[in-house]
Amino acid sequence: MWATLALAAVLQPVPAQGAKLSITNVRNTYGILGQERKGNEFLPGDIYVVSFDIEGLQVKDGGEIEYSMSMELKDGKGKSQFKKEPQDLKAFNALGGNKLPAFAITDIGLDTPPGEYTVTVNVTDRAAKDKPTANLERKFTVAPKKFAIVGLMLTNEAHNMPMPPVGVVGETLRINYLAVGFELTKDKQQPNLSLEMRVLDDAGKPTFAKPIADTVTTADDQDTKRYPVSYLVPLNRKGTYTVVLKVTDNIAKKTVEEKVSITVYEQK
């Protein structure tokens, strides 16, 4: 049901003697490095990401940070759904300071039952003499299945690595998402989806006359419950843009929409 992809997180720390851990800039995000995601409700097939900064970890003279982390996910009845034992980790603060960007990410399976879930993460500063430990307990809700766009994430073109919604002229980013909850044809058990992407400038005007559009009538026979979509967006001029993503289920006659904002700067 659950597949945890990565973790690096701490929230609401308990200060210990000789060390003071603190957390700032806490927010849910659309994928790793993504823009802030309002609300705390998610759908089966979605990705749950909580991002924040850890401050107060001991930093060695060479910029190295040593810490350990563990993670557990429980359902509303307190039953463990996933557990990762403490792992010794290292980070390198090349630019100085004692702030470490962090996140915890969990892939919500398509068969996940609706209800409330709790993520608990513990972190220990291994470099500090008294080994202070801090923890988080963060709740989120999984809603019943429905037709939706989920798993929205920005990546780069070459290696599909996470990107923030900020770039410079000359880069190319990739917008990725999953369409889930659509109906299938009765005869061939295949979807019938219309896909659209339109880009608006900071005045709300479309950057091109017609949206990029496609129709999907065939999906992977091994996985007809979700359809992955990816668009390449070359960043050819500076500005702030809104990308409007739209999917229509032509069988159920339903349409869903998501938006993502992108800011592009010129290199100087």
Provide structural commentary.
- With 268 residues, this protein is mainly beta.
- The protein has no helices and 17 strands.
- It has strands at residues 2-8, 22-28, 41-42, 47-55, 64-74, 80-92, 99-108, 115-125, 133-142, 148-156, 166-168, 172-180, 193-200, 212-216, 226-234, 239-249, 254-265.
- The strands form four sheets. It has a five-stranded mixed sheet, with no helix packed on it. Strands 11-17-16-13-14 form a five-stranded mixed sheet, with no helix packed on it. It has a four-stranded antiparallel sheet with strand order 1-7-4-2, with no helix packed on it.
What's the N-to-C terminus distance?
A: 47 Å
Oligomer: single chain
- Percentage of β-strand residues: over 45%
Mean pLDDT score? 87
Q: Which CATH class of the largest domain is shown?
A: Mainly Beta
Radius of gyration: 21 Å
Q: What topology, given as strand order, has the largest sheet?
A: 3-9-8-5-6
* Total domain modules: 2
Low-confidence stretches: 1-19
The largest pleated sheet is described as: 5 strands, mixed
The amount of helix comes to under 10%
Number of strands: 17
Give the gist of this structure.
The protein is mainly β. The chain contains no helices and 17 strands.
Write the layout of secondary structure elements.
Blueprint: E1 2-8, E2 22-28, E3 41-42, E4 47-55, E5 64-74, E6 80-92, E7 99-108, E8 115-125, E9 133-142, E10 148-156, E11 166-168, E12 172-180, E13 193-200, E14 212-216, E15 226-234, E16 239-249, E17 254-265
Name the features.
Immunoglobulin-like; 2 domains; flat; mainly beta; five-stranded mixed sheet; 54% strand; disordered N terminus; 268 residues
